[in-house]
Predict the structure.
Amino acid sequence: MPWAMAVGADIDERFLIRDLVWCGPCGLGMSALMMSPGRRFYGCRNIHCPRPVIPAEMLESLVWQGFLYLFVESDPEISAEDQRAALVHSLERVTVGVDLGEVRYQWRDLP
C-alpha cells in the first residue's frame, strides 16, 4: 500500500462519512486517510486486511445516492456539511466488503 497517514482534526471535516464506515472482512471501523494532498481515502485499521483502501469520493457518492434513494424525493443541492448531518442522523454504519459491490447499510430507525 502507498504511504498514508490518518487525518487530524483540521482535515477531518472533509470526510463526509467518517466514523460511519466499517470493514466487512475485519469488522473494524475504517480510518480516514490522506495519501497525498487532496487524495482522500478510507482504509481498514488492520494492516493485514484484504480490503484495499477506497477512494473517499467514490464511497461517499455511493452512500449519498443510497440515502437519496431511500429518504429524499428529489436530488437537492445541499452543502457537504448538511449532507454529513443528514447521514449521521439517518445512518448507523456502512460496511464495505472486499470490493465496493459488497456495501451494506445499517439505517437508524427513523420516525
In short: The beta strands are 5-6, 21-23, 30-36, 39-44, 54-55, 91-96, 103-107. The helical segments are 9-12, 56-71, 80-90.
